[in-house]
Amino acid sequence: MNRNIKIVIAIVSLSLISATSIAATNKVVSFSTAKKKMYSKVFNNTGETLYCGCDWSARNTDLNSCGLQSFFPKKQRKRALRTEAEHIIPASWMLKVNNKTRQCVIDSKAVKDSARKYCQKHDLDYKQAHNDLVNLYPAVGQVNADRSNKPFVDVAKTKIKTYGKCDIEIGSRGIVPPSDKKGDIARVAFYMTKTYGVTYSKRQLELFKQWSKKDPISTQEMAHNKLIVKVQGFGLRQ
Question: What integer is the mean pLDDT of 210-222?
């Protein structure tokens, strides 16, 4: 290959990288904006929560609709009544790309700031991953808090917490989601790997593969994914 051709290829490659960066910049929105889009444009300000199927509207959860009206203690009830945007794949899992710690995480330590907050300000790729509607879903606020960034498991083994009629268990080391949501969760996980380089433990990845096979994609899930693409311009395409 002669020198001129190499130069042309290099210029084209740089142009593509720049175009990709600009496109990414145009797509990135704040977490606040992402949540507003999720509630109003994806769910039309009403629907059912991810893990417990509780009815919600205007960001308020109807605990009576899912048998949780008397479940939460007084100190947790306020948050339980609130509908929150759950990161299916936790935000903390996105702080690495292909198992390599993001530079923004390293920089956040130098300024003694939260890695999650700092990376949203200084890493556009992280910000987009954090605010991607594919990975956001309405959840009961207190369930979102209890789940935190725990991994997904098939069996919760220690300090197990159940939620009345809600078909989930949260243990000290993992969450068991409803069977009819396991495939949905797995496909979001695969998308997050393909799009943002999020990686999982060998055990977690194998579990996702099993769940995707046992709980294949439904017409409802496909419609949900198509709507997300329409709302934010990119997403999980079947």
Answer: 97
Domain range for 197: 30-232
The predicted pLDDT at position 237 comes to 82
* Mean pLDDT in residue range 150-159: 95
Tell me whether residue 203 is in a domain.
yes
7 pLDDT above the threshold of 70: no
d(CA 142, CA 44): 22
Number of domains in the chain: 1
In this prediction, residue 12 carries a pLDDT of 31
In tens, the pLDDT along 16-60 reads 333 344 345 456 899 999 999 999 999 999 999 999 999 999 999
Domain membership flag for residue 3? no
Instruction: Give CA torsion, residues 196, 200, 206, 210, to 10 deg.
Output: -50
- Among 188, 189, 187, 153, which Cα is nearest to 170's? 153
pLDDT at 150: 97
Please choose, from the candidates 29, 131, 153, 30, the residue with its C-alpha nearest in 3D space to the C-alpha of residue 85. 131
In a domain, 23, yes or no: no
Q: Say if 7 falls within a structural domain.
A: no
User: At residue 6, does pLDDT exceed 70?
Assistant: no
CB-CB neighbours of 137 under 10 Å:
24
Regarding pTM above 0.85, the answer is yes
